[in-house]
Amino acid sequence: MTREDDQGRLSDMAAVVTRSPSPISVQEWDELYIPEGYRAEIIRYHLVVYPEPEWQRSGSAPPITVEEWEKVTVPESYRAEIVQTELIVSPAPSYDHGRIQAALMFLFKPQLPAGFDVLTGMEWQCAMEGRVATAPQPDVIVVPKGIHRLTSAPLFAAEVLSDSDRDRFEAVSTLTRIEGKRLDYATNGLLDYLEVDLATGKPVVIRYERHKGVLVEVDRAEGDKRLVADRPFPYEIVPARLLD
After folding, report:
1. C-alpha distances out from residue 73 to 37, 50, 70, 94, 176, Å
2. Where do the H-state alpha helices sit in 24-156?
3. Where are the beta strands (DSSP E) in 31-135?
4. What is residue 166's three-state secondary structure?
């Protein structure tokens, strides 16, 4: 890959991830730490992290040890995750994204079984032989009360889709990021999962259940249609009301 091709590809990538710029201070840039095998650049005020070209050509992501992962530092307005073994750095979510997160937590909390809590921003890390295979941060997650480190499947997880969730991986596959997350979630034992999609500007709620090792869509609702679920705890969602 020539330098011109590389810069052209980065410009295309930047056009996707810079819809809501998150400026980075000199101090944040100096304190940035990403694992070996990845490259970080600031393009149009936005942090872009991707595997070095030799890893992209190999079709695999640079392995990240548990020790390296614990050192990873990104600016406050970004989130670092490992999905499908690849490091993913995403910009801060939109205002509507945050509103829906809060609405889901408020809706779920009274319905939870005894001994469980609903949280946001908690990492679910799965490591094998000293390397981190996946470390997502579901937007909303239901876990036993008092848990501080999650290494096994939560009771329930939900994602509010952002533009970056539709980006494709740089090295490991042709999947979009959200497709990769679903695969990781199912592989690691998540039985019940929910997505809120804002692609059309109006929330669409999609419910998944794990069948034969795969998360399968079992119900969806949009507008004033009510989505009713009885597992893993009873809840009802009217998508149009999530942004009230």
Report:
1. 15, 15, 9, 21, 24
2. 26-31, 53-58, 66-71, 95-108
3. 38-43, 46-51, 78-83, 86-91, 116-119, 126-128, 131-134
4. helix
Our CA dihedral for 25, 87, 91, 26, rounded to 10 degrees, sits at 0
Distance of alpha carbon 188 from alpha carbon 183, whole angstroms: 9
User: Which stretches within 47-94 are classed as H helix?
Assistant: 53-58, 66-71
Whether the bond into 232 is cis, omega within 30 of 0: yes
Between the alpha carbon of residue 28 and those of residues 17, 25, 33, 123, 185, the distances in Å are 19, 5, 10, 22, 31
DSSP annotation of 35: -
Class of domain 95-241: alpha beta
Return the structure tokens found at 172.
């490991």
Q: 59 or 108, which is more confident?
A: 108
Asked whether 208 and 224 are in contact (CB, 8 A), the reply is no
Q: SS3 of 134, please?
A: strand
Domain ranges of the chain: 3-91, 95-241
Q: Is the dihedral of CA 151, 143, 158, 17 positive or negative?
A: negative
Please give the Cα distance from 114 to 122 (Å, whole number): 20
State pLDDT tens for residues 185-239: 999 999 999 999 998 888 999 999 999 999 999 999 999 999 999 999 999 999 9
